[in-house]
Amino acid sequence: MMYCIGLLILALGIILNTKTGLGVSPIISIPYSISKIWNINLGNATMCIYILCVAGQAVLRGKKFHLFDLLQIPMSIIFSRIINIFNDMIVINCNNLIINLLLLAAAIMLTGIGAYITVKMKIVPNAADGLTQALSERIKKGLGLAKNITDISCVIITIIIGLVCAGKIVGIGLGTLAAVIGVGRAIALTNMLFEKKMIVLVE
């Protein structure tokens, strides 16, 4: 139940981030730019990118990649459907910078909380988080550095896709930078406040 709640909160945070108009979070920036440039459903684009994340894990882990890790694919399909639901439900047309910044702060906090819950439940990781973890194991560095590498790579790929295919940068902005910095802090804050309760719940 907590895992499902975490997925809902994570999807809500991601969609709120896209609705502010200030730039989307790094990991969703690639499917977001694809959906905008070629008018493709955001959930479907996200699902395809997440499946590529699972393939990336298989390459990085090699023989250490297990069949259990493939469960991230059906999880990605479910997650992409949730994203579609929230994307259709939430309509925000606001040109007030202060309100949009408040929405961005809420989006970052929700994304951090959702990511924290899904990881702590130790069931099936989000495909993007799984890729970050696989990269961390491969380069033998901390998750923080691996997360930075993943985020920066996503931003660079998004910029290239936008410039080559649309002649402009799509989806990258203040909200992207805020998400790079803020989501990690939101996860740390959530961990500080609820770590003991989560440990008890998991056990």
TrEMBL record:
Xref: InterPro entries: YczE/YyaS-like
Keyword hit for Cell wall biogenesis/degradation: no
Superkingdom in the source lineage: Bacteria
Keywords assigned by UniProt, alphabetized: Membrane, Transmembrane, Transmembrane helix
Any Pfam family hit: DUF6198
Coiled coil: none
Keyword presence, Ribonucleoprotein: no
Membrane-spanning residues: 39-60, 98-119, 148-170
Protein name: Membrane protein YczE
Lineage: Bacteria, Bacillati, Bacillota, Clostridia, Eubacteriales
